[in-house]
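Dear colleague,

Following up on yesterday's call, I've attached the two folding results inline so they're easy to grep. Please treat them as preliminary; we haven't cross-checked anything against experimental data yet. The first protein's sequence and structure tokens come first.
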Amino acid sequence: MTTREHGTATIAASVAALALIVLVTQSRAHDPRSGEASASLTPAAPRASVPPPHSDAVLPTGAAENKWGPFEGRIIDAETGRGISGAAVIVLWKKAVPEPAGGHEEFYDASWAVSRADGDFAIKRHNPPWFRLGITGPYLSFLAPAYELYELTPESSATGNHVQLHEGNITVRLRRTSQGAHLPDAHNLFGIPEKRRRALLGGINRERQAMGLQPIRLLISGSL
């Protein structure tokens, strides 16, 4: 072999070796088992956060599919924007009672929840009855000592300074009042039978007590 031929062979061998190195490097960069080698060649992807649990919460509108919940949201101070801890959320359903003169509505059922330290609340879905004709609602009442009571009905406007409804989430802004632990008349709660109403408030106040809060004293048409 001449000197020229030997040089050509050496160059060819070097090119082949370089090509092999590049091929191996690319293979390691695309192989998830290659560990640190792939990380040094490709920017590390950000670690995916754990997705929040799926929520089936609905908005409290008059639509049949939304009537029974579940309802979720947050109760905040209208001035500071901070969550209100221990606020009570009561959801009420009524049933129509026909009469010759047109009929009236009576209490059907109710559910409740107490907001957590950040103001968040959640009310589970109520199991609807088999026969649902004549049942109206939901009627939601938001109660907290030293704040104005706010009531949300299927017919009321969901816009303005008090409430915002968005993608299954209810945000309620309560304004402070000078009433202290006493609350103004709760129109939506007027039709709840006294025994059921006392049991409902008892459950709410037990949760508030566990949070280190004073009980709610609810004014219903002139009587506590």
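Below is the second protein, in the same order (sequence, then structure):
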Amino acid sequence: MLPQIDQLVAAIERNRIRKLALISSGRLSSPGTMKPTLSFDVEDSGSEPGTVHNDDCWGSVATAAWILDGATGLSKKRLLPSASTDAQWFVRAVDIELRNADWSEPTETLLRSALQRVNGRFRNEARGTLEQALWPFASFALIRALNDHIEFVNLGDCRILWKRRDFGGVKSFGSSRVTELDSNVVNEIKRLHRGGTTNNEVVWEIISPIIQANRDLKNRPGGYWILDIAGDGLDHLQKMELDPSDIDKVLLCTDGYYRLVDTYLTRTVDSLLEDSMDLGIASTIRSIREIERADDRCLSFPRIKSSDDATGVLVVVRRGQ
């Protein structure tokens, strides 16, 4: 019996040491200093393709929620035939890995591990020559509940909107040079329209090389940082930490959803969040589609794509003991 008792004592001591390590790292509160636990509930969500295939994706676990906006491929070449598009394959692969990730890890470590697993799948499933210029990539935004604060993370042109309790104004988090580069493309579209070139297919043929040149700047100094299979953008995550007492509800959205603010100019950040809460995500997406159907030639609202994938996720912060 003595060897068994010794083994039990050793196991108890290992568990005690592990708990002390977790406490010292901030992953576990010590007895007598228990803090309210934070978690998220998804109150509403919606994701709709702009055309046939949806290259957006969203997901959640108890302490995190995220959105992904895959970049539409410009080439007819395909690497990943198991999905409708390579961008769709990528965002869904990342989503699966995040749903099964170890959320006790720091954010950068967790994301890097997830992308390493996605990279392994990519190497196994991709077909043909793996030209890096063809590798899929995506914009990404994440909210995460930690012990005593909420973390916002962004890489690309997704947005996170929230209303601060102290003064009631809606705040926006997330920015990228992608927005500036896309604006330059839209300025070229406006120039073409003024010159009489208004056919969408002709305009696309002219602007496609400009878009490709912009994409060649991804994950390079002087360019912009984005989520891709190699994980090169992870050293440049935008991050913000907030006191959970400041936040009630949070909206994560892709640029196709945010068009109501920066392209169609029919909403402000305040009214976009209010409509998402009061009217719902699906209703808000319908209002986007109504504008796009009425302006399918992109003349009233010049833009790169007539209709873009649109995704919104409304999250409620929960506090418990």
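For the second protein, one point worth flagging: Residues 74 and 197 are 21 Å apart (CA to CA).

Best wishes,
A.L.
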